[in-house]
Amino acid sequence: LFFLDRGFLAMGNLLFLTGVYLLIGWQRAKALFFQKGRLLPSLAFFGGIVLIMCRWVLVGLIIEGLGFISLFGKFAGVLFLIMSRLPIIGPVFRLPIFQKAQMPFQKKRQEQMV
């Protein structure tokens, strides 16, 4: 019902950005969003936020989602690893279906380490 509510999406975006800046600091957050190779995904992410504010909710949500995946997709492998070590939902993330979903992220991490 409230999935495409402009107010809730704007509040969520504001809280997400505030959390990122408070968690990693101003300089690192600025480097995360405004590095030379990440300008296009950052533009898509912030452009999606602006489109949501301008009442183009569905288009803004899609563009923001694409920018989010481009910016934070590299953290998915780490996120899977953390989730699999949690006490209650850890066994669920260790099921074979989630193991298959983790494989592309594990390969990328191994290639980066070499």
TrEMBL record:
GO biological process: endoplasmic reticulum to Golgi vesicle-mediated transport; retrograde transport, endosome to Golgi
Membrane topology: Multi-pass membrane protein
Principal place of residence: Golgi
Membrane spanning residue stretches: 6-27, 39-63, 75-97
Keyword Transmembrane helix on entry: yes
Keyword Ion transport part of the UniProt annotation: no
InterPro entries xref list: Got1, Vesicle_transpt_Got1/SFT2
GO-annotated cellular components: cytosol; Golgi membrane
Pfam families xref list: Got1
Keywords assigned by UniProt, alphabetized: Golgi apparatus, Membrane, Transmembrane, Transmembrane helix
Subcellular location: Golgi apparatus membrane
Family: Belongs to the GOT1 family.
PANTHER family with a match to the protein in the record: CGI-141-RELATED/LIPASE CONTAINING PROTEIN, GOLGI TRANSPORT PROTEIN 1-RELATED
Name under which the protein is recorded: Vesicle transport protein, Got1/SFT2-like
Organism: Kipferlia bialata
Lineage, broadest ranks: Eukaryota, Metamonada, Carpediemonas-like organisms, Kipferlia
